[in-house]
Structure formats: structure tokens, C-alpha cells
Amino acid sequence: MDLPNIETYLRPNEIQTINNWGKDWAWLAGGTWLFSEPQPQLRVLVDMQSLDWSEIEVQEDNLVIGATCPLIKLLQYPWQLEWTAVAGLKSAVSTLAASLKVINMATVGGNLCLALSVGSLAPIMIALGAKYEIWNLQGESRLVAAEDFQIGSRQTILQPSEVLRRVLIPVKNLKWRVNYQRFGIAATDPALAIVVSAYNPENLQFKCVIGASVPAPKLLDCNHINIDYSPSLQKIEFINSPKASATYRREITQILIKRSLHQLKLINTHP
């Protein structure tokens, strides 16, 4: 979709060269959402592709994914076989209700910063203990835990003009066993519930993150593996909408948790 209201288009080589950020400005990464519907409030687009950020690399003890990395790269990158958790990353991309054309253009940072309740990447980033590096226009940076980044549907902790620079996932966590579960009425429909479970065989640590059924992904309190997480789920406020009631989403989430535990071979029964 054309955005005829845009008056200025910028392609900076460094974000420090940008001055006087306005409320009618927006970062442009892949643009798959930005150009999908009218944006009458915008006058200036700042194209991030000219920043030439790296896509995927290993630095010290972290896998580093640049914010402008296209989603398709998560499927195509030659991952190490011992990084079993990558299967979850691939599932998060593969289960997107999007065409191959969108996946080729849409970016990791765009998916995370759009912060839709149905966002596919945020739950697994939380499960893997990822951190996000955020930059401001002065070149200052800060690290935040993935679980603290999204605070609601279409809401993050980003301040005006701040940008997500990259995602850092501890390499040791990539050796975890991860299972990604998604439920929607149809494969092409937005998810009604997402569950990501991660299990560390070395110390028996278990994590479970729910998404899509709640406004922002939520890490469950999992001190031990339990077939029934109903008591914990009862304390959570689930989305109630014409598409699915809060009660329905809660029940589906419980089923996906059991299914995920079964896939990880942590329980012997299948729901």
C-alpha cells in the first residue's frame, strides 16, 4: 500500500546522524506491516536497511541476531546440529500466517517491536533467556530481558526514537530441547494460543511461555514439571474477544502445554 502522506524518507548510515525525532516519524525495516494499512499519522520514514547491521553471528557466548535480519534467514542459516533449540526458532517462523514473500522481507526486529499479542518470535525469545540491546539516537545502549520488553498488545518499553539493535541468545541455551505449539482455527488465521516449552537436560530446568492467548507473552512459574498448570493459568488474565473467549483460550493453552510436554518426552500421555 502506498503512503501518500509521507513527506520525508531518510536512509542514514548511522543513527547518531538523526536529529529532532518527531512523533510523526517511524523506523522502516522490512515494511511488511507498515505498508499493509494506512498510516495517516506518519510524515517521515527512517529506513534501517542502510545501517548495514549484521544478520546472524556468534560473539563470545551469545548468538547475535541483528534487528534487520529477515525472518527467512532463520530458516536458511547453517545452524550447528547440537543447537537443538533452533528447531523452535524455525517453527516460530514456519507457523506464521504469512506468505513466503512476507517472510523474505519481514525482519526479526519488526516482529518483536510490533508486539502483537499473536507475535510468533517473542515467546521463544523469552523461553531461551534472550536479551535485547536497545539504542537511542545518542548511541547509548541498554540491555533488557526479553520477558520485560513487551508489556501489552502493541506495547513495548521502547521510548520515542529508540530502536531495537540486536537480540542476544546465550549459546548454552541453544542446546536445550524446545517445543513450539500453536493453535488457530485455520493455518492462515492468527493464533489463538501459543506455548513454547524449553528443557535443559543438564540441570533439569524447565521453562514454559504462553503467548497469543494473552496481551503479552508470559513466562509461567515452573519450579518443577507438572502435567496440570491450571492453577497458574487461573491467575492469568486471558484475552476475551469475539474470536475466542478467555475460558476457551485458557483451556486450549492447558492442552498445548500438555502436548508440548509430551513432545519433549517429559510426560507419557498425550492430551
How would you portray this structure in words?
The protein is α+β, with helices and mostly antiparallel strands and 271 residues long. The chain has three domains: 8-49; 51-172, Uridine Diphospho-n-acetylenolpyruvylglucosamine Reductase, domain 3 (2-Layer Sandwich), CATH 3.30.465; 176-263, CO dehydrogenase flavoprotein, C-terminal domain (Enolase-like, domain 1). 22% of the residues lie in helices and 25% in strands. It is built from eight helices and 14 strands. The chain has helices at 72-76, 86-94, 100-105, 108-114, 122-127, 146-149, 230-234, 246-263, and strands at 8-10, 25-28, 44-47, 56-59, 62-66, 131-135, 141-145, 150-152, 155-156, 163-170, 177-183, 193-200, 205-211, 218-219. A hairpin with a 5-residue loop joins β6 (131-135) and β7. This is Carbon monoxide dehydrogenase. InterPro entries: Diverse_Substr_Oxidored (IPR051312), FAD-bd_PCMH (IPR016166), FAD-bd_PCMH-like_sf (IPR036318), FAD-bd_PCMH_sub2 (IPR016169), Mopterin_DH_FAD-bd (IPR002346). Residues 1-174 form the FAD-binding PCMH-type domain. It comes from Fischerella muscicola CCMEE 5323.
Topology:
Blueprint: E1 8-10, E2 25-28, E3 44-47, E4 56-59, E5 62-66, H1 72-76, H2 86-94, H3 100-105, H4 108-114, H5 122-127, E6 131-135, E7 141-145, H6 146-149, E8 150-152, E9 155-156, E10 163-170, E11 177-183, E12 193-200, E13 205-211, E14 218-219, H7 230-234, H8 246-263
Parallel strand pairs: 1-3, 2-3
Antiparallel strand pairs: 4-5, 5-10, 6-7, 6-10, 8-9, 11-12, 12-13, 13-14
Describe, in short, the structure shown.
By secondary structure, the chain is of the alpha+beta class.
